[in-house]
Design goal:
The protein is mainly β and 175 residues long. It has one domain (25-174): Cadherins (Immunoglobulin-like), CATH 2.60.40. It has two helices and eleven strands, in the order αβββαββββββββ. The chain has helices at 3-23, 65-68, and strands at residues 29-35, 38-44, 52-64, 72-74, 80-84, 93-96, 105-114, 116-117, 129-138, 147-158, 161-174. Strands 5-1-2-8 form a four-stranded mixed β-sheet, with no helix packed on it. A four-stranded mixed β-sheet has the order 3-11-10-6. A three-stranded antiparallel β-sheet has the order 4-9-7, with no helix packed on it. Strand 1 (29-35) and strand 2 (38-44) form a beta hairpin. The termini are far apart. The model is unreliable at 1-23 (pLDDT under 50).
Length: 175
């Protein structure tokens, strides 16, 4: 066998593998945000790999130090769900918080249910989706005017695919 024959055989095997992988349709996964009680279609996840995809977003939100001191409150703009637009299936997901304590408070994972709909209120899917978000408890009395930071990740598995949606949150603590 010559090197040319080996390279051609390798290229043929790669083409067969790529063809069989492409024959199975990848799910059309979208990440949706829970906004003022309704879910709005947010973004389509780009498929960087046939088996695993990661999307990272920067989120900014705020809490009031005077109203929320030692109270656990759900943080607006941190609730997201993952769903497949082709089948309306919401893959099983879990939320991962790498830390529980932040510089000025404590975070906990929280879940709420809602329906995925367009901006006109038309529901895309009949089944409700779980929206994963973060609740925050302000612990430091001197935190007014400061910013807290943390990361929340949603991990969804669908068939043999795994999707990671990670949000880096900047939390402004208002007086």
């Amino acid at each position: 066998m010559t090197i040319k024959t080996i390279l051609l055989a390798g290229a043929a095997v790669c083409a067969l593998m790529a063809g069989s992988a492409a024959a199975e349709q990848m799910p059309s996964i979208h990440v949706v945000a829970l906004h003022q009680g309704t879910a709005l279609a947010k973004t389509k996840m780009q498929h960087a790999s046939p088996l695993s995809t990661t999307v990272t977003a920067q989120i900014s939100t705020s809490v009031s130090a005077s109203q929320n001191f030692h109270q656990t409150v759900p943080l607006p703009r941190t609730y997201y769900a993952v769903y497949d637009t082709q089948t309306c299936l919401v893959p099983p997901a879990r939320q991962k918080l790498p830390m529980r304590k932040t510089a000025y408070g404590r975070i906990t994972a929280s879940v709420t249910q809602g329906f995925v709909s367009g901006s006109d209120g038309t529901a895309f899917c009949a089944a409700p989706a779980n929206f994963y978000g973060v609740s925050y408890e302000l612990k430091a009395s001197h935190a007014a005017g400061k910013t807290d930071h943390f990361v929340s990740t949603i991990i969804a598995k669908y068939k043999k695919y795994k999707f990671y949606y990670s949000e880096a949150v900047s939390l402004t603590i208002e007086p």
